[in-house]
Amino acid sequence: MEGTPQPNRKILVALDGSRHSRNTLHYLAGLFADQDDVDLHLLTLVTGASLPPGSEWLSEAERANMMSPQTRKKLVAHKGFLHEAADFLSQRGIAPERVGQEVGVSSGSVPQDIANRARQGRYDAVAVGRRGMTKLEEMLLGSVSNDIFERSRELPLWVIDGRIENQRFLVPVDNTPYALLAVDHLAFMLRGHPRAEITLFHSTAILAARPRPTPEEFHQHWEPAWCEQHLNRPDGLFRAPRQILVEAGFPAERISELETAAGFEPSRQIIRQALMDDYGTIVMGRRGPEARKGIFRGVSDRVLLMAEQVAVWVVG
């Protein structure tokens, strides 16, 4: 109904006090400082603290007394950089009432703890900064962002690499419900945004798989009549995602379309296009583990691994 209040959008922001966390805060402040209905919950987790079962019901002071001196020192340090993070956001126009702070104790797996908090709090997205590891180190040793990516396929995950200034979004589309769900997430998170620009992008790269989703896969999310009008037509590749954005209130004049046949493999072409045309964010859908192989099964993994100096949103 017109005039019905919209729910606030909530982002869980995982921080570790590093400069990579500062890049995450810089990115979020740049996007959402003037969006009063976007709330940020800052989370940091203390590792190495062994607490007995049931201690989660104790007060913070009681739990602190059960920790070793070294762990208590970590706790104080983590609280300190969360306060600094909140001050950083405040200086950039995000009111204190929009920023929550939480210092938690890890159960042993930081990625799993972050994913669990995201589910429990029903957050709309999880934002993390990529640590300064090489791509080989990430493949061999793993990373928090990649571990969250693997453990929580249903959570929208935003991975921020580097200091990102612009608010231009590159959105690969491929006539699958997974790509449209990513567009739907983007439309929700950019609701009422005054500056963002979106490019719907399709690569007909030689090695790209040709997805063949069934009508029932789309009808789980969109009415058959809507699909018939906007999707089941020669220009449906771009018409359907554009319609989702427009229906959500995103200005049509800030949506563009780009199709290319360059390159041999979709993930490399997506990254190349983002760097070549200076996009700040790539937004992608991903399939569940049970889905048939298609363009976004494996492509999002490779984009997330290879992307540098860009934010990647992966929507399950």
Would you kindly provide a written description of the structure presented here, covering whatever features stand out?
This protein has helices spanning 19-32, 60-65, 69-91, 110-120, 135-141, 144-151, 177-189, 215-219, 224-230, 236-247, 266-276, 299-306, and strands at 9-14, 38-46, 99-105, 125-129, 157-160, 168-172, 197-203, 255-260, 281-285, 311-315. Helix 7 links the parallel strand 6 and strand 7 (197-203). Residues 133-142 and 292-297 have low confidence and may be disordered. It has 316 residues and is an alpha/beta fold. It has twelve helices and ten strands. The chain has a ten-stranded mixed β-sheet with strand order 3-2-1-4-5-10-9-6-7-8, sandwiched between helices. The protein is elongated, with a radius of gyration of 20 Å. Helix content is 40%, strand content 19%. Helix 4 (110-120) crosses helix 6 (144-151), helix 7 (177-189) runs parallel beside helix 10 and helix 11 (266-276) packs across helix 12 (299-306).
Characterize this entry briefly.
40% of the residues lie in helices and 19% in strands.
Query: What is the radius of gyration computed over CA atoms, rounded to a whole number of angstroms?
Result: 20 Å
The topology string of helices and strands comes to EHEHHEHEHHEEHEHHHEHEHE
Backbone shape: elongated
Provide the β-strand percentage band: 15-25%
Which class best fits the helix and strand makeup?
alpha/beta
Helix content: 25-40%
Look at the structure and give the mean pLDDT: 85
> In what order do the strands lie side by side in the largest sheet?
3-2-1-4-5-10-9-6-7-8
Count of separate DSSP helical elements:
12
Number of strands: 10
Query: Which regions contain 5 or more consecutive residues with pLDDT less than 50?
Result: 133-142, 292-297
Alpha-carbon distance between the two ends? 28 Å
Question: Main sheet, how many strands, which sense, barrel?
Answer: 10 strands, mixed
